[in-house]
Amino acid sequence: PANDNVFYYSGYFVGDAFKILTSPGFWQPQYGESNGAVGLNDGAGSDPGVFSIPADGYYDFTIDITGVTNSSQGSSSFSIAPNANGASATTYTSVGIIGDGTPTGWGSDTDMVQSTFDPHKWSITNVSLISGFMKFRANDDWAVNWGSDTELTGQGTQDGPNIPVEPGTYDIYFNDLDGRYI
What is the pTM of this model? Predict the structure, then answer.
């Protein structure tokens, strides 16, 4: 939430290569590697190279797209590093949202859907939230729960504060490896 140009992803990757697309289903704008920094093709330039993953496994990927244009790499950067905890991290049976801003209030979880590709990724689509607060929690129990003080996007921590909720209909994504949500 502090920087709209920095993005994080911790999770399972297949050993291969990838690019970042800003609009699902469209090839441009796309970000990739360019001379050790981040390159962009917004439709008016040439395609940058790919980001490479050396082998199947859990990795942390960070990308900063500050100042990137077709003709400039700005102060962009990226990093790809093995995630030390991914392979041994607890795999939860369920993760849900709970709170007075959620459909079922503080009384019960609204379950999220676990990714079939990476068991640490969770999502729920088209969920209506009302003004209030929420948290993420595992296995319908308070023993493992994540919270933060930022709405819309952030990084929850164990027993963190309640997440502020503004009314609206949302698609919510949560990563139990690092507590990040959007």
Answer: 0.91
pLDDT by residue (tens digit) across 143-168? Answer: 999 999 999 999 999 999 999 999 99
The DSSP call for residue 142 is T
Q: Angle at CA 41, nearest 5°, toward 170 and 31?
A: 55
- For the stretch 50-87, pLDDT in tens is 999 999 999 999 999 998 888 788 888 999 999 999 98
Bridge partners of residue 95, in order along the sequence: 138
Measure the CA–CA gap between 10 and 95, rounded to whole angstroms: 17
* Nearest Cα to Cα of residue 174 among 104, 108, 118: 118
Starting at the earlier edge strand, list the strands of the sheet with 121-129: 113-114, 121-129, 168-175, 180-181, 154-155
Task: Give strand pairing partners of 79.
Answer: 62
